[in-house]
Design a protein that fits this description.
80% helix, 168 residues
């Protein structure tokens, strides 16, 4: 027996071939569970991001507008949009937050909230001299990731809408 076989680097002749092949096939099959575990981990991470975005838009952004908090009311008054504009934006943000949690609406909701953030960015630049202009841009990054990652649901949504239209 060579020193390599004695040290366990090479299989010795006493091991039967089927056992070696089984051992080799088990080791070559191991990357597949790692890939699915990684995919599962990414899906979970994406879902966590969606929940955090939904909570942010519902609680930190929409709620102050919908209850007429002085900070929101003052900003909308300064822009000349008044209460109607404040409530409209609050309703859009709350609807988007809820839709982020509905599987068939996730991609559309993320894209719509991204569009709303473009508007918020422009408002921050034009009315408030860019004081908080980075916030909408920072929010757009995970929103666009969600929109892209969940785009597979768009076909299902299209099918549901078409079926509903046909039923009248």
């Amino acid at each position: 027996m060579s020193s390599g076989a004695a040290s366990g680097l090479y299989p010795d002749s006493s091991t039967d071939r089927p056992a070696q092949e089984t051992a080799m096939s088990e080791t070559t099959a191991s990357p597949a569970p790692t890939v699915s575990a990684r995919g599962r981990g990414l899906r979970v991470a994406l879902r966590v991001v969606q929940v955090f975005l939904a909570l942010f838009f519902a609680l930190a952004s929409a709620l102050p507008k919908l209850i007429g908090h002085s900070s929101a009311a003052g900003s909308f008054a300064e822009m000349g949009w008044g209460d109607a504009g404040m409530y409209a934006i609050g309703v859009l943000e709350l609807a988007g937050a809820i839709a982020l949690l509905v599987p068939v609406l996730q991609s559309v909701a993320a894209a719509a909230l991204s569009a709303l953030m473009v508007g918020a960015f422009v408002v921050q630049l034009t009315y408030f001299d860019g004081a908080n202009a980075a916030t909408p841009l920072v929010l757009m990054v995970p929103l666009l990731i969600v929109a892209r990652a969940r785009r597979g649901h768009n076909e299902e949504l299209r099918r549901l809408v078409r079926a509903r239209v046909r039923r009248g």
